[in-house]
Design goal:
The protein is mostly beta strands. It contains 1 helix and 13 strands, in the order αβββββββββββββ.
Amino acid sequence: MRNTLRIALVGAALSAVSFASAASAATSATANASAEVLTTLTLTANSSLNFGQIAANTGGSVTVNADSTASSSGTLISTGTRAPAGFTVTGTPNANVVLTLPTSATLTRSGGTEAMSISGFNANPAGAFQLGSTGSSNFSIGGTLTVASGQVAGVYNGTFSVSVEYQ
């Protein structure tokens, strides 16, 4: 019985020591938390994508690049003012934004149903870029217009959408 009592006392002592060491191993710390709310982005179209004047002949395409270069293919003749669309984005200074371009758009003849399609949209700068120290940046958008053989004469207009978001 004496040995049983000794064993019980030793077991109780060991249990007390293990609980005490577990309790003394616990600790805590505090951390700071913060957040920055970014200025709402605004996007303004400053100028239109202009493919100039085109003599369709047997068709082809006119490309106006975002870097203001222009070219044509096929038998069409492309002349006049050709220029990319210009945009201004404003938001939080020095923040990074990413630009999303459309895959296609349609120009429709004024007073008619005839159409031409725009594809191959490109941007300068392309993809993601940083806003300036004032929170503003400009970019240009170009594309490729497909002109059919014998395209009906007239003025063709349409719209396309681009978007920007913080990256």
